[in-house]
Design the sequence.
């Protein structure tokens, strides 16, 4: 009896040690950033940087590049998510229903971007984009097309987990037999049952787009990360503070995601929590990449 | 053609004509023709892979036949998509939409037909009433048992007053007791509303119990289509005889339309050539009496409730199953000598 209690105590200690180490690993850089943004040269603390950051009108007049990058990144997130969903959800559903033999190929294509470094992607995309920019104008938002490719693997995994959890074939056949058109089948039956998967695919995509630096920088477009990088040369404190904010935002999004999943799995049987649904996606890639 | 439904005028005729469908080298449907009379309840029976589900899915529009025509109520629907065919369908797998309550599920088809909210609600209420689940209207699929889910699926299929009701092994996932209950209920409701119904199953008891006519399928063709009693008593082929009910295969000598089996001359239903044949005989077509000078030895005797079954080995080395009255069962002990004799009309068919 006492032996068992001892084992349990040991396990508890081990658990706490592990959690603490992992937390420290993630938190130390963040604390360092916070420390840097509040430090005054001769010792002491100041909240000046954060006050500036919280003052929307001041930050947008003082740092127009940051504002521009922020708006571009938000726009890119929306565009990427919309295109990704419009592309993947019907395709994956259709493959499941009518072309099950193609599912391996589709999976391979969707996971391929994982193996292609961003720089290689840019080399391949450069001629395409030179035409796009030439024909349709030099908007940063065109990057959304490249970002869709970038988020494919993560979005695919998340949606695939969702589709596995429901019997798409029977449900859509039932809906068809009741008189539903294919559009209604997608909108009324498939999508509502994929809600958590769609949410997680979208969250992951947003996190990835908000953290993207390489492609935007190589195409000389200004998104949030590029703006932060450029700002870092002139006003490091603001740059780091924004970096900290976007990191925390990404963490909060990923954290919220696991809660959304857990809540829904409680109300529905057979549904895996979202955290499990996105397990294959490495969190590090989804979070913000630090410039500098 | 027998049409049992008193509401037959509400049903429509359904005709599958010369349907062909192959998957690579496999012929799932091989020139299959099946005509359903208005309001008729036809069951398709057969081993897995015989094409019965393919036939139903072709009728539903979920599979496209390679050749052949399908008409519903005289209208050619062969090229029509599923959602335009006006069918109700119940699937083998639980198919309730998981994000909707039972009531919303039943309302779905009506909504697709653009009916207004109050009509939908009234109709859904009636349908849930019909399947005895009014009290479960606000439950989700995962809060219901398998049997309840299939009832709601039935209500959902019927809510749209379909021209044809398709049942694709709707009972196979249920346990034995619920299965019998729901089976009888499906028949009751079908008789009540008179919808022409095609029911696919691999369970012969189910098919015989509910259908007006049963079609036995084999390798993509209809082997026989007949009312249950006829199918059982006068199977057209050995395959049908063996698939429906228990049969003994007994060696015999055929000549002139009769065969000599275990010393008794039996008339054969279907003609066969003369010579050595195997004759199919049901356990209830054979009598067994304890007899020290008999022609067989009892191997085992089993009590099955209403009747008993004696398994014996003849002196010729054949194993014979004989059905006996439960009361007579104690007089059969393993090792005991018995005389087994086929009744005069016992022969069903000749195995080829």
Sequence:
């Amino acid at each position: 009896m006492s032996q068992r209690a001892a084992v349990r105590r040991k396990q508890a200690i081990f658990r706490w040690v592990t959690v603490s180490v992992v937390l420290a690993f993630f938190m130390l850089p963040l604390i360092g950033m916070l420390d840097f943004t509040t430090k005054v040269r001769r010792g002491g603390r100041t909240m000046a940087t954060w006050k500036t950051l919280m003052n929307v009108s001041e930050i947008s007049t003082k740092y127009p590049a940051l504002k521009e990058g922020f708006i571009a990144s938000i726009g890119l997130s929306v565009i990427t998510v919309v295109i990704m969903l419009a592309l993947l959800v019907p395709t994956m559903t259709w493959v499941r229903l009518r072309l099950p033999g193609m599912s391996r190929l589709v999976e391979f294509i969707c996971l391929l971007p994982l193996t292609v470094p961003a720089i290689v992607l840019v080399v391949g995309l450069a001629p395409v984009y030179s035409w796009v920019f030439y024909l349709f104008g030099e908007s940063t938002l065109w990057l959304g097309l490249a970002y869709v490719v970038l988020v494919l693997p993560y979005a695919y995994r998340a949606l695939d987990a969702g589709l596995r959890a429901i019997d798409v074939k029977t449900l859509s056949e039932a809906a068809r037999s009741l008189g539903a058109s294919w559009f209604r089948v997608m909108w009324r039956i498939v999508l509502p049952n994929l809600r958590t998967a769609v949410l997680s695919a979208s969250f992951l995509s947003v996190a990835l787009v908000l953290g993207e630096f390489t492609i935007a920088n190589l195409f000389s477009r200004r998104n949030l990360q590029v703006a932060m990088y450029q700002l870092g040369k002139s006003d490091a404190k603001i740059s780091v503070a924004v970096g900290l904010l976007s990191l925390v935002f990404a963490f909060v999004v990923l954290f919220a995601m696991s809660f959304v999943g857990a809540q829904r799995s409680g109300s529905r049987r057979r549904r895996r929590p979202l955290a499990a649904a996105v397990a294959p996606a490495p969190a590090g890639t989804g979070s913000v990449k630090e410039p500098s | 053609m027998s049409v049992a439904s008193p509401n037959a005028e509400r049903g429509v005729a359904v005709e599958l004509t010369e349907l062909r469908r192959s998957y690579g080298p496999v012929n799932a449907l091989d020139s299959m023709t099946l005509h359903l009379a208005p309001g008729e309840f036809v069951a398709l029976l057969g081993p897995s892979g015989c094409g019965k589900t393919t036939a139903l899915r072709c009728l539903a529009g979920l599979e496209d036949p390679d050749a052949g025509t399908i008409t519903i109520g005289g209208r050619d629907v062969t090229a029509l998509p599923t959602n335009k065919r006006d069918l109700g369908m119940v699937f083998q797998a639980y198919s309730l939409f998981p994000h909707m309550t039972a009531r919303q599920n039943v309302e779905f088809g009506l909504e697709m037909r653009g009916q207004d909210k109050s009509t939908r609600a009234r109709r859904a209420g009636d349908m849930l009433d019909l399947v005895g689940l009014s009290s479960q209207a606000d439950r989700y699929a995962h809060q219901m048992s398998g049997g309840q889910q299939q009832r709601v699926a039935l209500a959902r299929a019927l809510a749209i007053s379909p021209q044809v009701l398709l049942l694709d092994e709707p009972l196979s996932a249920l346990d034995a007791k619920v299965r019998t209950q729901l089976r009888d209920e499906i028949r009751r409701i079908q008789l009540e509303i008179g919808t022409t119904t095609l029911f696919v199953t691999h369970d012969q008891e189910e098919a015989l119990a509910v259908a007006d006519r049963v079609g036995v399928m084999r390798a993509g063709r209809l082997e026989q289509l007949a009312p249950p009693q006829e199918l059982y008593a006068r199977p057209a082929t050995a395959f049908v005889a063996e698939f429906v009910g228990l049969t003994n295969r007994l060696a015999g000598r055929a000549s002139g339309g009769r065969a000599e089996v275990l010393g008794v001359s039996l008339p054969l239903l279907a003609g066969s050539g003369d010579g050595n044949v195997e004759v199919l005989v049901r356990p209830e077509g054979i009598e067994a009496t304890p007899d020290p000078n008999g022609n067989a030895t009892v191997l085992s005797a089993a009590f099955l409730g209403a009747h008993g079954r004696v398994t014996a080995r003849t002196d010729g080395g054949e194993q014979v199953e004989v059905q006996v009255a439960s009361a007579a069962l104690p007089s059969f002990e393993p090792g005991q000598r018995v005389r087994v004799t086929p009744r005069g009309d016992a022969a069903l068919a000749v195995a080829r």
Q: What stands out?
A: The first helix of chain A runs from residue 2 to 38. Chain A has a mean pLDDT of 83. The interface with chain B takes residues 166-167, 170-171, 173-181, 184, 188-189, 192-193, 268-270 of chain A (CB under 8 Å). Chain A has two domains: 1-46, 64-286.
